[in-house]
Design goal:
With 221 residues, the chain is α/β, with parallel strands linked by helices. It has six helices and eleven strands.
Length: 221
Amino acid sequence: MKIYCVRIGDKYGKEYEDYINDKLKKYEVIWIRKPFHNDVTLQWNKMLPMSYDIDEPICVIDIDIHLINDYEKLFDYHIERGQFISIPAWWKDADGYNINGGFFKYYPIDCKYIYDKFISDIDYWQQYYINNKTTVGPVNGEQYFVEDSVNEKLELITVPSAWVTRWSNGYNMTKLQFDDWQYYISNKYINATNNEYLKLGDFHKDIKFIHFTHAQNKPYK
């Protein structure tokens, strides 16, 4: 199976590639290192694989992630034509939306309409979710665009909430702020999963995919 990752610009170094290549060596990891269109910015280049005439599942992932425990179960999650798999954003990035853009699994041939919709008015869609206050700029909104578009024609499926979490290393927070954040996100996880804890020394054994909050986190370490 092919797994596509975007690393454009200098925010994330090659060490992120090395980490993901090592963790996912069982698969074919393909790196997108430059925009596929002059007007497409940063993570919006995740739209590119939706243009391919591939009639088999692929994955598209963010690179500010940490993979632990039996993480291959996420990548091997069963999918059928007409379905679109993502991870649940139980921490709620935005009201009215349910998925996180850090992981997608789909048949590209099913998603060509999403690519066509995006490429028909790149600037409009790249600003749409910033302009309507769903998120903040300067570059953002691709996960909401994908969720809205998937719901037009496909069956959206999320993997178990217990498999994923948001996390931070506390960068730019005081210790008190970080302790409060950990308490908040841990309670969210417990309520979403009925597991007894999120992190108690180690992360819970159910967790497979940790999505960090910004480039100051170093998951490859």
